[in-house]
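Standup notes
- DV: blocked on the single-chain target, sequence here:
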Amino acid sequence: MPRNLPVDIVGWVGVAALLLAYALVSLRRLEGDSLPFQLLNLAGSAMLMVNSFYYGAYPSVAVNLAWVGIGMFALGRIARRRSRQE
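- DV (later): unblocked, structure below
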């Protein structure tokens, strides 16, 4: 097995997660502020960040780090909203 195969798999799974999230929102199967959408975005961008860092693609690391931060912020808002509803 090539040494970088696990990193490549992580990157491709990240791509799939981000594209799935985008497609589901575009097709109105998910809302942009829903937990599943935010989790898909967060996981996908985190996986792409790992892949980009491994390959030294630092601009991609930066954008995915920002994407993770936005996802974390959104998940915090969802959690606060849910705790107020209980």
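- Follow-up: Helices lie at 5-26, 35-54, 58-85.
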